[in-house]
Amino acid sequence: MSLFSSLSSTAGALGAQEYGLEIAGQNLANINTPGYARRTVNLAEAPGTDPLIAGGGVEVQSVTAQRNALVESRLWHEQPSGSEQAAIADSLSVVQTALGGASLDTQLNNFFDAFSALANDPTSRPARFQVVSKGQSLAQTFNAVSASLATSQRDADANVRTGVDQVNALAATLASINTSLAGTTDAGAETLKDQQSNALQSLSQLIDFSVIHHADGSVDVSIGQGRALVAGANSYQLRAVSGGPQGFASIFSGSADVSAEIGGGSIGGALRVRDVVVPGYAASLDKLAFDLSTSVNAAHQAGFDLNGNPGGAFFTPLAAPAGAAAALSVNPAIVNDGTLIAAASAPVAGDNRTAAAIGNLRTTVLAGGATPLDAWGAIVYRVGSDVQAARQEQSSRADVITQLQNLRDQTSGVSMDEEAASMIRFQRAYEANARFFTTLSDSLDTLLAMVNR
Amino acid sequence: MRVTFGIEFRDGTADIALAAERLAAAQRQVSSGHRINDLSDDPVGASSVVQQQSAIARIDAYTAASDSASSRLTVADSVLSDLIDTITAAQTTVVGAQGSEVTATQADAAVQQLGALRDAVLSDMNTQVNGTFLFGGTNVLAQPYVQLAGGAVSAYQGNAATASVGVDASRSVPISFDGGQILQGADPADLFSTFASLATAITNRDSVGMSQGLAALKRAFDRATVAQTAVGNALNTIDSATTQRVTARNDAAARLSKVQDADMASAITEMTSAQNAYSAALGAFATVNKLSLMDYLK
């Protein structure tokens, strides 16, 4: 082996150690980059060109991105459930705040109190005014709670639409990455795979999906019952199509409505809140409003007003439970003339039996099988219980996801201590090779000095 | 196990968030004084709060009804006492007018006395509370008895129905009274007619008429006494119901407080504990992240 060839191989070794330092720097630079997988440099002994020489030094064989495909796949599988529960918990927290602050129970009690007070003094004008006022407050509270539920549904619908846009953007990104992966170098491929992993991680927060990995690193992604979202270089965009009486978005893949097939991610959570959970509350509220107004009207119409005439409907009659809470209102004729309130069971001013009967509806079991306050209590319990369950489920899923993220990081994450150690390792190796290079150079100087002598 | 920067950061921030959430919840309990601030804090408790508040509101409604009824019954009791006194005075007057030794002047005085007593009865029976007549049955807006021209009094203008209000779930008390039942009952004529007949009998020295009149007064006295006893019973019912209501309300308020209100001692203890945990989480995160091999590189 000649001194010159040794110089050459040492120069290669210096380059290899320098590259190791660069990799450490790259790892540290991306310590906070989502989806980044820690790189390790693979050094190999360079073969010698002659059996009599020590060897060809060292060469950089490859750079490996440290990934655990099993953990990443598991993470993409768990993330949608966590995001779904988080979306449900967040949406229902708003609902519970609206319901908790509405004090419908207070308004119900005030309404029945007003009729009880009227029974104490059935000819009193102030007592009649109070009945009208409390009836209006009760109706307005029903309206407000119903509006809050409708707003929650609209907010969830907006989240569905935004989510669909995000899914489409990520699908396009993944298709583009697939295209790029087809003809790229190893180093570039790892960067693309980081981006791919990051995109899949983001997608898993939006929607549940399945992935098929190909040998070239590209992935095919499908949602629902095998609906293609990404296939090779193609992405198949989802569409949010408005429909139904409320104009809510249905999600279409091609010509198929896949809304019912989506069960995870923030989109799945928003769909569940919009189409299942909140409509359930709204139906119970509507049923309570309908049963209450029907019972009050029945008692009121069986009575007689202060003028001795048969009572009319106290609340504007409702045709069906659907939409009852939003439509509940006090009969305008009664609002304008309190003497039309029927407090009597006979056409005599001092009779108070109808007012007392309506006051006693507070503890009367309505058509729905519960007293008005118990029916409201059941709604309160259901909302609170659903929020509590969603939060517990969210917390439980978050624990699993955190564990998986930590497992992923155990393989792919960057450790400052490790990189510091790498820096020392490659720096020391660089120094040693530099020293060897200097020694070779000194040897050459000596040799050349002998020639020149 | 490799402990990376990402793991340290994720676990550290999660622990801090958890401790901060616990501190915020404890702080909210202490500042609001309520154990349940959101429905999800205790769904069963939140539902129970609705029930207990409803129970309290219902009791309060009975209290309002009792107070209203009590004021009317107290007035009725006073009026019926007056009526009984008036009938007694009439009896005394008639008895004094009996006998052959009664002079015409004394008889005239007795007749005038009966007229004054009749007016007193008329005033009593037309007593109003809050603008409604107390003794007209449920016909509370019409004057039960109207003075006619010449001093006569009309027939009963009210009706036989009475209104009542509930003072608890099972008991009710009257708030209006059938004046016709008190002044006439099963008699062929009412008390005003009795007064008129007695005046005629005294003027005519009609001892039979006076005796019949005295018998009618006795029956009116009995009816008024029965009515007053009923009023007294109603007031007793209110007193009894009030005692029970106070106990029931206290029980309901205690149940509500137990469900809704925070136990301040344990809430403050929990807040202190949460504060310490939060401080520890912050300190742990800061301390762990201070250590790095990087610090030893030169």
Ordered list of secondary-structure elements with their pairings:
The complex is a heterodimer of chains A (453) and B (298).
Chain A: H1 3-29, E1 39-45, E2 58-65, H2 69-102, H3 104-120, H4 125-182, H5 186-206, E3 209-213, E4 219-223, E5 227-231, E6 234-235, E7 238-243, E8 248-253, E9 256-257, H6 265-301, H7 324-327, H8 332-336, H9 353-359, H10 372-412, H11 416-452
Antiparallel strand pairs in A: 1-2, 3-4, 4-5, 5-6, 7-8, 8-9
Chain B: H1 5-32, H2 43-97, H3 104-125, E1 128-129, E2 132-133, E3 164-166, E4 172-174, H4 179-183, H5 191-203, H6 207-260, H7 264-290
Antiparallel strand pairs in B: 1-2, 3-4
Helix content of chain B: 55-70%
Give start-end ranges of low-pLDDT stretches of chain B.
none
Q: Which pair of chains has the greatest number of interface residues, and how are they split between the two chains? A: A-B, 65 and 55 residues
Number of helices of chain B: 7
**Total number of β-strand segments of chain B?**
4
Biggest beta-sheet profile of chain B: 2 strands, antiparallel
The major beta sheet of chain A can be summarized as: 4 strands, antiparallel
Could you state the oligomeric state of the chains shown? Answer: heterodimer
Q: Please report the total strand number of chain A as a whole number.
A: 9
What structural class results from the helix and strand content of chain B?
A: mainly alpha
Approximate strand percentage of chain B: under 5%
Strand content of chain A: 5-15%
Q: What's the gyration radius of chain A in Å?
A: 37 Å
Which overall shape of chain A is indicated by the principal axes computed on the Cα atoms? rod-shaped
> Which structural class matches the secondary elements of chain A?
alpha+beta
Order of helical and strand elements of chain A: HEEHHHHEEEEEEEHHHHHH
